[in-house]
Amino acid sequence: MRDVRRFRRPSSVTICFSLCSLIMLLCSCSSANSSPGSATPVTTPSPLATSISTPLSSPEPANPGPEDWPTYHHDMLRGGYVPSMIDPNQLTQTWQTNVDGAVYAEPLVVQGHILVVTENDSLYSLDEHSGAIQWHVNVGIPVQLSTLPCGNIDPLGITSTPVYDPQTGLLFAVAEIRGPSHILVGIDLQTGQVRIRRTIDLPGMDPRTHQQRSALALYKNHVYVAFGGLAGDCGNYRGTIIAAQTDGQGPLLSYRVPTPREGAIWAPSGPAIDANGNVFVAVGNGEVTQGNWDHSDSILRLSADLALQDGFAPAQWPHDNETDADLGSTGPLPLPNNLMFSAGKAGIGYLLHADNLGGVGGQLNQLLVCPGARSMGGAALLGLQIYVPCNNGVQLVNVGPGTKMSLGWKNKQLLLPPVIGGHTLYSLDPSGTLYAVDASTGQLRAQITLGPVAHFATPTLSANHIFVGTMNSVFSVNAA
Q1: Which of 195, 251, 200, 252 lies closest to 17 in space, CA to CA?
Q2: 300/364 Cα distance (integer angstroms)
Q3: pLDDT digits 0-9 by tens, 317-336
Q4: With helix as H, strand as E and coil as C, how does 164-226 read?
Q5: Does the pLDDT at position 4 exceed 80?
Q6: Residues 293, 320: contact at Cβ < 8 Å?
Q7: Distance CA 56, CA 171 (A)
Q8: Pick from 167, 130, 80, 104: nearest CA to 379
Q9: Average pLDDT of every residue of the chain
Q10: With helix as H, strand as E and coil as C, how does 74-116 read?
Q11: 296 in Cβ contact with 284 (< 8 Å)
Q12: Global pTM value
């Protein structure tokens, strides 16, 4: 099935260098070299539907280096693994910087910038060595929970993990702002200037009932933005993924799950994109509980221009829909040998062919990987070893030989999505305790408590350091 739609920008907002755009640019920037723990004064710009603030010319874009972490779980395959870290005997806090709201998104690292977003609709660049604020920009007024029909984040601002684009030198993020509406912003990595700002809501899409929680993705000159619903599944929403050009121009491409309602694309790890531009998404439960499959409770493969190519759903998809036991809670994980792994709220792991997902009941193999629990967030991958985030502990799943799957160790202290550096796995619990465990055995190497973290919080790794966002701060931890 193909459901690709193109939309033109309204003619009233096509004058990109209007006086309003210039005022918004001046208000969006903040001074650099602020001390850790202090917020640089900023002025909230007025929301605009679509605009480009300045030409994309200078400074030169910064290409990600070997110690960078430019997207959720490091790269578009979402494996969350870097080989070049030591295996620590201790973890030591090196700095803490206070920010103006809760940090739900994973921090990013690009060329010495620690990039952080908050639910106050703010974006920060922190110095990797000291935590000093290099720039801080606020792009809107967040939405109060009392103005929404349901939900569990208050206020609701920037929830999803941004993505850095080395071709434009921009950090892309989506903010929910008072109105409400969702805006895509492109922020200059070096200066913090707002270079791109455009509405990302589609015509007929109610911003009050759509939440943008899934990490942004990037392929060539498009940034991908997925939408689900608010906690409580209120209102008339449908899972949707949108692609916008990284120059801020052109129509939006989109795919909407062909279900009457729900079918959220909300997994925190976001779409996974392979080298050929295939876009893989996990879809949550829909309202349909009998009859023909409506592409809810699924893994879907879309083309780079968001045409539906293929899909998979468990044979029991109607029951999954009825009992809220769908696949949409954990993003799809591409594996070597053209394989794909997925697990969701039912706790069942499915092994699929990435180029032939198999339709309803077409899995290569399946295994109960989270008995009595749900898989939620984003998994980590080391070779053919999958570290699955169950909400009662991280579970190791071994793949092979062939399409066989078997269970390895489980550590019940590790409750949030893991990442791997060297041969050490790092994961948090809701209290903000960071654990470093042996990736082969699950045995504890070291731990440190930082402070309460948001749902599905996951660490960032760079140059023997771990960066963690909490409910009001960002921490740097040294692994030694």
Answers
A1: 195
A2: 16
A3: 999 999 999 999 999 999 99
A4: EECCCCEEEEEEEECCCEEEEEEEECCCCCEEEEEECCCCCCCCCCEECCCCCEEECCEEEEE
A5: no
A6: no
A7: 13
A8: 80
A9: 89
A10: CCCCCCCEECCCCCCCCEEEEEEEECCCCCCCCCEEECCEEEE
A11: yes
A12: 0.88
Kindly list the distances between the CA atom of residue 407 and the CA atoms of 348, 369, 398, 400, in Å, as whole numbers in the listed order.
Answer: 12, 7, 6, 11
CA atoms within 13 A of residue 399's CA, in its CB half-sphere: 26
Q: What pLDDT is recorded for position 147? A: 97
Peptide bond into 180 cis (omega under 30): yes
Give the Cα separation of 427 and 434 in Å (integer). Answer: 6
User: Which of 39-43, 297-301, 338-342 has the least mean pLDDT?
Assistant: 39-43
Cα–Cα distance measured from residue 117 to residue 132, given in angstroms and rounded to the nearest whole number? 15
Q: Report the alpha-carbon distance of residue 189 to residue 327 in Å, rounded.
A: 35
Dist. CA 322–CA 297, nearest whole Å: 11
- Reply yes or no on whether the pLDDT at 155 is more than 50: yes
Percent of residues, the chain, with pLDDT higher than 70: 87
* Closest by CA position to 301, among listed 329, 252, 338, 337: 338
| Structure tokens, 66 | 């070997």
**What confidence score (pLDDT) does residue 66 get?**
82
Judged against a pLDDT cut of 60, whether residue 465 lies above it is answered with yes
For position 65, what pLDDT does the model report? 78
Q: Is 230 helix (H, G, I), strand (E, B) or coil?
A: coil
**CB neighbour list of residue 75: distance below 8 Å, 6 or more residues apart:** none
- What pLDDT digit, counting tens, does each position of 7-48 carry? 333 333 333 333 333 333 333 333 333 333 333 333 333 333
- Residues sharing a CB contact under 8 Å with residue 317, sequence separation 6 or more, in sequence order: 293, 296, 297, 298, 360
CB 265 within 8 A of CB 328: yes
N-to-C CA span, the chain:
52
Q: Which residues partner with 428 through β-bridges?
A: 434
Round to whole Å and give the CA distance between 249 and 299.
30
Region 364-387 average pLDDT: 97
Residues whose CB is less than 8 angstroms from the CB of residue 227 and which lie 6 or more positions away in sequence, other chains included: 182, 205, 210, 211, 212, 214, 237, 239, 240, 241, 242, 264, 265, 266
Q: For tokens 């309460």, name the residue.
A: 452
Contacts of 55 (CB under 8 A, 6+ apart): none
Encoding tokens for residue 235? 């209102």
Tell me what pLDDT residue 63 has. 65
State which H helix or E strand residue 252 sits in. strand 252-256
pLDDT-derived band of residue 60, with 50, 70 and 90 as boundaries? low
